Amino acid sequence: MVRTAWEDLPHHYADIELNAFIVVPNHVHGIIVMVGAGLKPAPTHGTEPWRESEIECARLIYSGSRTQTRI
Questions:
Q1: Which of 24, 40, 43, 60 has the highest Cβ tally under 10 A?
Q2: Cα separation of 35 and 32, whole Å?
């Protein structure tokens, strides 16, 4: 059953190649090669939002312009 599903994956997803797979007690491990994906990093657009808030928090702490009065 697992082998059939594994071998059927390329019929559902274009540009993949299958390599080895192994069935373990409650799941499957397998190697799927994404053909043509290349080795380039994902694009980023400026600073991540969480990083901006972290930087702003550091500015406030080190500038002394605001202090936390309650926890």
A1: 60
A2: 9
CB-based contacts of 23, cutoff 8 Å, min separation 6: 2
Which residue, 37, 27, 29, 32, is CA-closest to 8?
32
Query: In 3-state terms, what secondary structure has residue 40?
Result: coil
Residue 45 lies in a domain: no
Choose among 34, 30, 31, 29: nearest CA to 14: 34
Measured between alpha carbons, how far is 54 from 58 in angstroms, rounded to an integer? 6
> Has residue 12 been placed in a domain?
yes
Q: Is the pTM of this model over 0.70?
A: no
Range of 1's domain?
1-37
Number of domains the chain contains: 1
Residues β-bridged to residue 22: 29
